[in-house]
Amino acid sequence: MGALLSRLTGGGNPTRDFTASIVVFLVAMPLCMGIAVASGVAPEKGLITGIIGGLVVGLLAGSPLQVSGPAAGLAVIVFEIVREQGLSALGPILVLAGIIQFVAGALKLGGWFRAISPAVVHGMLAGIGVLIVVGQFHVLFDAKPLASGIENLSAMPGRLFGLNPGDVSGAELAFGIGLLTIGAMLGWEKLRPASMKLVPGALVGVVSATLVAYFAGLDVTRVVVPSNILSAVDVPDGGFLAKLADPSIYATALAIAFIASAETLLSAAAVDKMHDGARTDYDKELRAQGIGNLLCGAAGALPMTGVIVRSSANVQAGATSRLSTILHGAWILGFVALLPWLLREIPMAALGGILVVTGIRLVSLAHVKHLFQRYGPLPAFIWAATLVTVVAEDLLTGVLVGLGLSLLELIPHVRKLNLGVHQRHADADEHHVELHGAATFVTLPKLTRALDAVPHDKAFTLHVGRLSAIDHTSAEMLNDWLQRRRAAGMRIDLAGEKGRLRGLAA
Predict the structure, then answer these.
(1) Positive or negative, the Cα torsion across 70, 334, 318, 52?
(2) In the chain, what is the straight-line distance between the N-terminal and C-terminal CA atoms, in Å?
């Protein structure tokens, strides 16, 4: 047992991992159920994904401190699948998506997902945030979201003005519970004492709403979960295998694999900035996510990704190894197995309130302002175009539009897209890397490999005087790398910086 614990912790602190796992569990429980509701499926589907994300992916992950589970970023596309093709199509699609992810990891394609423009990724997340807000707005009234984002948006005024303050029942009660959840969540995050900073606002919001609904005997719609979690697992049958042979699901599976992988690996990169431990093995993480989604598909659950909210809670709570992630999955399993009656007291409007706050936070105006101020109007336009297309059309179309617009940055350099990377050692204590040519998202994997190979224990000089151009994707990656290495105490100099690179030298 001691050998297994040592292997899981990798020299970490089991006590800190234990306490961190409880914090992550408390954050994950309401989010797993809320994201399932936003996806148009039963809450227990999200819980199963959270359990697999902890117990299986946590054990295999290439990013030890990243937490995997159902993600708001995929709720919209799952909602569309369930509405148009039925819940029975989701399992086969996820099995295929998992296989695609695993093969991509085996072929060492993980680094290429880091080459996706930050403007596209954040525009996609902002579009998803808008769709979640306008959809979950109706859940606040104990109503179901409509078929599309535009329909949900256009129906919002009627839903609000249809309230009758003189007859407090039904929708009015549910709306009050939703507002109470949002108020308690935001109020706690703003006013909580320092000694209780690890208690998540989402948990406070759900508990407050549940207690009020229970003791006041309010007639509002509540969460429905089975008394036995195993009954929520849909074992593959003959229809499942027949659906795998349907060529119409392959495009959807590819879209889920692409979006889930991009969100996972970008989240892993963000987690790497938060701690000084082992860096992410992107290909290993991709393989682990593939296995996780394959299992989620076989169990009839939701798709998973690495998720930044739960991962940041894990790091901030003091986690030191993958043991924390694994234990959080065990706590979810134990809770739904032993206390399902408690989950059935949670109002649906409370979960809707949590998702409204989550959706709003996905729309990061600060990020588009950063893109515009540092890199000019084109990245900001890519962000806006991706957002609008995701809301007006669908997630995949929005991403494709963003990726297509990203190609505009290549036009001025289309004849010289090569990036030269030359490494040399001036002496035993100093390392040099010289760049020449154009640093674009096309060459970002090459640049990333070269920088990651730079030793930590030597002074480093990056020569960029012969760099003819750098796009915002490469500039953001380089900025993140420089900040992380400098924070670790490494002395780094930039030689020949100009234009976009001048700000990085500071």
Answers:
(1) negative
(2) 49
The H or E element spanning position 420 is strand 419-427
Neighbours of 165 (CB within 10 A): 6
Q: Which residue has the tokens 């070269």?
A: 450
Q: Which of 200, 274, 92 has its CA nearest to residue 100?
A: 92
> Which are the contacts of 307, defined by CB distance < 8 A and separation ≥ 6?
31, 67, 68, 69, 70, 71, 267
Amino acid found at 160: L
Q: Is 107 helix (H, G, I), strand (E, B) or coil?
A: coil
Q: At what angle do helices 43-52 and 323-338 cross, to 10 degrees?
A: 150
Q: pTM for this structure?
A: 0.83
Rg (CA), the chain: 23
- Residue 170 clears pLDDT 60, i.e. is over it: yes
Return the closest-CA partner of residue 306 out of 347, 266, 346, 352.
266
Number of H helices, E strands in the chain: 22, 6
Top-ranked range on mean pLDDT: pick from 3-12, 70-79, 298-307, 450-459: 298-307
How crowded is residue 155: how many other Cβ atoms within 10 Å of its Cβ?
17
304-307/492-495 β-pairing: unpaired
